[in-house]
Amino acid sequence: MGRNGSLEAPGTRASTMLGTSKDSGYGIVTREDFSDVTFLLEIRHPLMAQAAQPGQFVIVMSHAEGERIPLTIADFDRGKGTITLVIQAVGKTTREMQQLCRIGTSLFALVGPMGVPSHVGGARKVTCVGGGLGVAPVFPQARAFKEAGAYVIGIIGFRTRALVFWEDKFRSCCDELIVCTDDGSMGVKGPVTEGIKRAIAAHPDIGEVVAIGPPLMMKACAEATRPHKINTMVSLNPVMVDGTGMCGGCRVRVGGQIKFACVDGPDFDGHQVDFEDLTTRLRRFATEEKSALDRWSESCRMTTPPEEAGGG
Fold first, then answer.
1. Which of 143, 187, 213, 249 is most buried, taking the most CB atoms under 10 A from its CB?
2. Given the DSSP bridges, would you call strands 106-107 and 109-114 parallel, antiparallel or unpaired?
């Protein structure tokens, strides 16, 4: 919970992908660490900031020999000419980025915005739900719904109070905000589905729910809204290679049909998504991913950020 040149709605194929070469690079102008594994990068790219829409993603390479990884756009500022990514350091590439990506450095490649933008409009009362890292990518959607005139209920969930981030950003665009923590150290005790239950009880006229987070969390959100027949959109992040629909790695099953998350999504009807198939696909390369992380960890000599290392 990230994803993501700009592709129009399925079938049109009109693209405005924006990339880079090693001669230009994309400068990192802000870095913020939310925890020991979660960090924010604000990157200067005026053209992409103008083109980006809620729900879209980019594909990033941190250096010339690096892996291409999809990351959801967590925010964009057209005035400043920047996009924001929130990253969780869980594998070899993201841990490498955690070490290397500092203010003043540049990303080697940044392609996007990719994916079909989220549909915003229609529903007059919307609930935007983010769990863990999914809190970041649901923010642009909450803001867009508010700008479109909807009544927005935000629900954000974390394991504990110490991991909470962007509460102020959500309060700035939500008419109501429910914070959930697994341990009850802040707000409602329990998962985000507890927040959904409270929101539905107080607002039986909710027209749409948007949920972004781990697959199990999104599945639980979809099941919480199914009895109430509330349209529920989720954002899927399967294994992805090229981001153009050519590799087929991001196949997902939705309503019994095969879809490609990079060009047909990443947003899909949560009541139609086959979450068991998605979970199986996400685990398919777990052994290889662990081996890559182990090899990198063994060979990596830089155990502290450059500015914190002692001088020689």
1. 213
2. unpaired
* SS3 per residue for the chain: CCCCCCECCCCCCCECCECCCCCCCEEEEEEEECCCCEEEEEEECHHHHHHCCCCCEEEEECCCCCCCEEEECCEEECCCCEEEEEEECCCHHHHHHHHHCCCCCEECEEEEEECCCCCCCCCCEEEEEEEHHHHHHHHHHHHHHHHCCCEEEEEEEECCHHHCCCHHHHHHHCCEEEEEECCCCCCEECCHHHHHHHHHHHCCCCCEEEEECCHHHHHHHHHHHHHHCCEEEEECCCCCCCCCCCCCCCEEEECCEEEEHHHHCCEEECCCECHHHHHHHHHCCHHHHHHHHHHHHHHCCCCCCHHHCCCC
The mean pLDDT value for 246-269 works out to: 83
Among positive and negative, which fits the CA dihedral 85, 90, 92, 95?
positive
Instruction: Show the domains of the chain with their CATH numbers.
Output: 26-114 (2.40.30.10), 121-213 (3.40.50.80)
Q: What would the pLDDT profile of 203-224 be if each residue is shown by its tens digit?
A: 999 999 999 998 999 999 999 9
Across residues 126-130, what is the average pLDDT? 95
- pLDDT score of 5 more than 80: no
Whether this prediction's pTM lies above 0.90 is answered by no
